[in-house]
Design a protein that fits this description.
Keywords: DNA condensation, DNA-binding. With about 90 residues, the chain is an alpha+beta fold. The chain contains three helices and five strands. The chain folds into two domains: about 40 residues; about 50 residues, Irregular (HU Protein, Chain A). A hairpin with a 3-residue loop joins strand 1 and strand 2.
């Protein structure tokens, strides 16, 4: 799924211009990112939950050379599908 796909769905749903639909799709994505940054999670009822998880620093192997490299600690976004979504798919 892409932002263009979301914009097309919005445009078809509310019969607006493509520019307005693109703006709405961009605003929706920005709102989700802000919510993840602020609260560390975001839930769409009947769809699923996005959560921010911290990852620890670790050692990994460079697949090309096989030599060990250090990977810094960071954050990643996880998704857990709701039971309704699991049934639908």
């Amino acid at each position: 799924m892409s932002k263009a796909f979301i914009a097309a769905v919005i445009q078809d749903s509310i019969n607006c211009t493509g520019v307005a639909a693109n703006k709405a799709a961009a605003d929706l994505m920005d709102a989700i990112v802000k919510e993840l940054k602020r609260d560390g999670g975001f839930t769409l009822p009947s769809f699923g939950t996005f959560t921010v998880k911290k990852t620890k620093a670790r050692k990994a192997l460079n697949p090309r050379t096989g030599e060990p490299v250090k990977v810094k600690a960071g954050k990643t976004v996880r998704f857990k599908a709701s039971p309704n979504l699991k049934k639908a798919v």
